[in-house]
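Quick illustration, no need to memorize.
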Amino acid sequence: MSNDEKFIETKKITTDLFRPFGDLLKLKNMPDMMINQGMCARHHDLAKLEFEKGGKPGISLFSAEPRELPYKLEMMERHPKGSQAFIPMHAQPFLVIVAMDDAGVPARPNAFITEPHIGINFHKNVWHGVLTPIHSPGIFAVIDRIASDKNLEEHWFKFPYTII
C-alpha cells in the first residue's frame, strides 16, 4: 500500500454523502409543524433509531477531548445492536469518520467535517470513528442503546490512516 493510500481528506458532510452510514440531525427547509402557540418550529422524526431487544434507549452526556488535524485513525468501532446519535451541545463543527463493512472489518474510511448546529446518527452496525471534536468544548448528548450485554466491536488497523 502506498503512502498516499493511507491519507484521507475530509469532506464537508452532506445528507447524500452520509446517507449510507446514518442520518444528519439538522433543521429541514420547512418545519413539519408549528407548536407552542406558533412560537416553535418542530422538525419531526429526523433519525432512524434502532434498539434491539434486551436494551432500551438512553440519553447520556459525553465530554470528549478535542483532537487536531491531521488526525491519526488507529481504530474504528460499531454497535451491532443499536444506532448511536451524537448531538453537539455547542456551535462547533466536529470530525465524523465512517466506513462500509468489508467482510466484518471496515473498508477504506470516509472523513467528514460537520457544520455548526448539526448532529449525526449512525445506523446500527455501521463502522465509525470515536467521538472526535476538533474544538472545545467537546460536550455531546448521545442517544444509544443501554443494556448489560455487549454492543461494541472494535477494529484496530495494522497501519493507521491519517485524516487531513
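The chain has a mean pLDDT of 95.
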